[in-house]
Amino acid sequence: MHISARVIASVMLITTMLLYSHSGLAQATLVEVYTPSATKQPRVMTLSGSVEARHNAQLASQESGLVQTLLVDAGDTVSKGDPLLKLDATLAELNLAQAKAGAQAATVSVNEAQRLLDEVAALSKKQSVAQTLIGERTAALANAKAEQIKQQALVALAQERLNRHTLYAPFTGVIGQRSVDMGEWVTPGDQLFTLVAESDLRIVVNVPQEYFPLLRSTPRLPVMVTPDINAAKPIKAEISRIVAVTDPSSRTFTAHIDLTDTMSVHAQFTPGMSAQADLLLSAQDGAVWIPKKAVKQHPDGGSSVFIANNNTAKRKIVTITASRPDYVAVTGLTGNESVITTGIELLKEGTQLQISARAGNLQ
């Protein structure tokens, strides 16, 4: 009977330990971990931008009038100086004809005044002629010449107004939009066409303000740009200009990336499309790259990760120094940790872990 009691006590103790063991396993959180490697590699900052044309104009008429002829439509390619639109120029043509008639009359007056002066001058050599008469004829000629200049200016003015009844392309490009139709009345300042140059393209990106000192101190920073299209090929470019004004709402500043006029650029890029720009920053020693999903963002703007230490979660504060589509470079890690990549929202300091999968540098 005494032996049976000892056996029963032992069985109860073993059962209790097994239950406690199973309870601990049930409470452990299943996680996946990633082991990074600290290496020296270029820092790459990936930004999304928009392709723009350096020349993008909203075209308007300089004169009021009725649209008589439309010579282009949206999508048409035009060269500098090509006519785009003509207004009814009947009144302008009549004004020009009137001005030309006035100029002809002024020319006749000049010729007549010159003849009268020459006549008096010839008589003054043979006989006495009053100097007053010579002065009057000289003044009359001067007045006639002044009137002639005035009438010639009126002709030039009327000709210019007539010319302005035709709208010309200020540069070579493609008509992006037509905002007027036949028979409409237009006034100066009305937007009639949008003209976009197909050459001299650039990509405009918004860069976080913390990179402003670096970009300002590194002229012509190299960039790899890729349009957001299928089978796109990256193209080498460089930062050509930074706009030293920060947007207070986004805390970013603008940078321009000029695209050279090459066949590959024209084949892949067009104004208005989106593109990816990989800014090749200086190399960083000991950069630890980890999956972006492993980083927990704090309300105060900070960042942290959880590492698995003896099957226990431990939080570490990190600072993001570079970014790629799925990975970020951070400081605050040695590169030998097992960084937890799943279920980080459920973790806290000291959470018991059960590792279900490992990835990264497994050596």
From TrEMBL:
Keywords assigned: Signal
Q: Which GO terms describe its molecular function?
A: efflux transmembrane transporter activity
| Gene Ontology cellular component annotations, sorted alphabetically | efflux pump complex
* Signal peptide bounds: 1-28
Report the InterPro entries cross-referenced here. Answer: MdtA-like_BSH (IPR058625), RND_pump_MFP (IPR006143)
Q: Which domain of life is it from?
A: Bacteria
Location of the Multidrug resistance protein MdtA-like barrel-sandwich hybrid domain: 57-196
Q: Which PANTHER family match?
A: HLYD FAMILY OF SECRETION PROTEINS, MULTIDRUG RESISTANCE PROTEIN MDTA
NCBIfam families per the record?
A: RND_mfp
**Record's family?**
Belongs to the membrane fusion protein (MFP) (TC 8.A.1) family.
Tell me what this protein is called. Answer: Efflux RND transporter periplasmic adaptor subunit
